[in-house]
């Protein structure tokens, strides 16, 4: 659905996108993550035909975004990170206005708008002025606006930013619905654990380059190679720690008042064997658990030492 090849965007001498290459298959929910200034919004704006690349190719549904912008626009619904809503409209009028702009006949709009409002949980706000809606509601209304022409691809730039936890959950539930409807979704976010729950794949971008891409589970498995095991033992804690230090795949052992923390690079089978060894040694194990590796850890590990662009280079931030 999306094919990006050597996409580069320069603002003066500053390179925001540096030969970015990635593709996203139809029906995929793709999480685009990266530190501030990494180039996510720039990529999304190019895909949405709102910004011209300096060089390289971006295609949506087989159409080149610079050569066939009209065809691309029919296929996409774009929600920018900063959006405006026309406050003097009522919710229904707002969607009707956008529907009309897309040339959707009135009779069709009359059917479509209640469906969209239901999808984004705004049915009871149909006759409210946009002005009176909360931020979360406005954001959901914007999402409904992106769906008016029934696009196949949604490009959502931080749709949950600035929302409180409840509003984020609501947004996430709507996105799940859209996934079930078969939409391809490119979504950027800083709320990484939330993304992990709903995306099929993630791409990590830094300094305008894709530095990791894959299925969430695969990337998490990569991280598992360096998992940390927390072991709580009744009595003989130091003896247990010494024993663990000598075991295969154990790279480091630290003890504190919470127990023994073991850095372990083995497989699940080897981890089970490690526990069995401890029991055989008659250590009284109270708990033996694996520290959770979530997308946040993955992200921090991959972008270790990163952050936003070099301050000297990043004169625009
Ligand atoms: N119009 C512009 N002129 C100059 N520099 C720009 C312009 N737009 C973006 N940039 C710079 O390009 C870099 C990439 O910006 P972009 O908005 O794509 O990053 P991002 O990953 O979306 O960041 P964030 O998560 O903070 O929104 C940033 O350093 C930004 O300051």
TrEMBL record:
InterPro entries with a match to the protein in the record: AAA+_ATPase, ABC_transporter-like_ATP-bd, DrrA1/2-like_C, P-loop_NTPase
One Gene Ontology molecular-function label: ATP binding
Keyword Ligase: no
Gene3D superfamilies: P-loop containing nucleotide triphosphate hydrolases
Keyword Nucleotide-binding: yes
Signal sequence, start to end: none
Name of one Pfam family that matches: DrrA1-3_C
UniProt keyword terms in alphabetical order: ATP-binding, Nucleotide-binding, Transport
Domain ABC transporter per the UniProt entry, residue ranges: 2-232
Transmembrane segments: none
Assigned protein family: Belongs to the ABC transporter superfamily.
Name of the protein in question: ABC transporter ATP-binding protein
Phylogenetic lineage: Bacteria, Bacillati, Bacillota, Bacilli, Bacillales
